[in-house]
Amino acid sequence: MKLSEEMLAQYDRDGFIAAPGVFSQAELASIKTALAEDVTVKGPHLITEDDGETMRAVYASHTRHPLFRDLVTSERLLGPAVQLVGRDLYVHQFKINTKRPFGGESWAWHQDYPVWRDADRMPEARAVNVAVFLDDVSEFNGPVVFLRGSHRLGSGTSRRRQGGETAEHIDPRDYTLSGDDLSRLAGVHEMTSPKGAAGTVVFFHPEIVHGSAPNISPYPRDLLITTYNSSSNAPRPPGEPRPEYLVGRDTTPLVPHARLLETMAATTTGAGA
Amino acid sequence: MKLSEEMLAQYDRDGFIAAPGVFSQAELASIKTALAEDVTVKGPHLITEDDGETMRAVYASHTRHPLFRDLVTSERLLGPAVQLVGRDLYVHQFKINTKRPFGGESWAWHQDYPVWRDADRMPEARAVNVAVFLDDVSEFNGPVVFLRGSHRLGSGTSRRRQGGETAEHIDPRDYTLSGDDLSRLAGVHEMTSPKGAAGTVVFFHPEIVHGSAPNISPYPRDLLITTYNSSSNAPRPPGEPRPEYLVGRDTTPLVPHARLLETMAATTTGAGA
């Protein structure tokens, strides 16, 4: 997939772009199957809601399951990422946010880069988030909401809140913007929310302000987010780095392929092994 | 205001209709002022969120504040209500749901009539809810979501849940539909959510399934809902009725007037007296 000049300009202006129909129904079914397989592997990479039971997110599936390993090197994700950030990209972070029907919780308003800046000493925001809709996304199942163009403000004002309470993965609530800041920003930067069918891909900037509401609908909202970072922009932790499921260690530039994921899934036997 | 034949047919089919621009900016400002005055009157008619502090709803303002007394007899609300339900209407219940920015909570999926049937022995669903948008309503500040046409199913399956925990006002969570029921209903009845500028009025059926998400936006979402019931359909409690702020005692048919609310506000002196 190649982004048009118009889409590149739109990304610069708005901080995000959406491309519909990137993955087929068959591929999405394979991804869902692979997700179901991967979450049988227990560990700290599985994040639950406050109830301690409902799954909120799973990290680093690309290090455990062959389908996700192939997904992150798919030309359809990696190609546009290279156009947006530059060549020599690797996976800084991989997560699937699994927002359940009837109560999957909100994600606080935040910017992504300040977390990686503070926790991992990532030098610059030369990275991009690539979000794949694994479910149809409507206004009713807790879509991501962006403040259009807010990435252009940088992220100098975002910092970890006193009393941040979440574990090493650092939930956005620990970096949430103040109500005053948000009210001011929302007066300038329109709230907007890309919707679309499963298979849509949204590329968004690590400094765009975003959040999402709980899911009150009967429909799940699984969102797969790969963060590609420049190899030359790898974190330089001052001491012990965060675990590998949060901060990719292998900064070797990825090589894209053009294979279909459904083919891959058909050859997958050892689930999550 | 007079509803067209087309709007009446739409109400029968969908269970709701929306009319934009019913109240002017000046009138809305007067209503907001009156609300601020009325909530200074403390009592059980003020409902808070689970934090025990943030206001969630206020009941029966029309019994305390002259502006709201005038609002419920305004021809603009009462006229269409008579068209939808028939003549000889009175106020069964009046509430303002005050959904705060950054966290005003959800309202569970429910139907209204079963509560009045069970708690108050209201004989039939010959009533109508008239909701006035006191703020602009967008997809971002927790709009009411309807299952289009679900009022036509009746409400035979809705009943109070075991362990219902809320006080006499009976929060919808105590009457929420099961996930299975909702999944089934949402497969047949489209989820839809009227939006619009402050001053929009939505008329909706007491048996339509509806709910709303929390408000994650910087914008409030105050929604004023008057339930008009037929005098001939007044509750017939078997014992002690619920308090008057929840169940209107005066079933005398209301007489509509065509006055502007801003005029009224200007003559209002004794706030909440």
Numbering strands along the chain, what is their spatial order in the largest sheet of chain A? 1-9-6-11-4-3-2
The number of strands of chain A is: 11
Cα separation of the termini of chain A: 31 Å
Largest interface: A-B, 23 and 23 residues
Question: Which CATH architecture of chain A?
Answer: Sandwich
Q: From the 3D structure, determine the CATH topology of chain A.
A: Jelly Rolls
Average pLDDT value of chain A? 91
* Main sheet makeup of chain A: 7 strands, antiparallel
CATH superfamily of chain A: q2cbj1_9rhob like domain
Assign an overall shape of chain A: globular
The count of domains of chain A is 1
Would you write up a description of this structure?
- The structure is a homodimer of 273-residue chains.
- Chain A has 273 residues and is of the alpha+beta class.
- Chain A is built from 7 helices and 11 strands.
- The first copy, chain A, has one domain: Sandwich (Jelly Rolls).
- The first copy, chain A, is globular, with a radius of gyration of 17 Å.
- Chains A, B: Residues 162-174 have a biased composition (Basic and acidic residues).
- Chains A, B: Its EC number is 1.14.11.-.
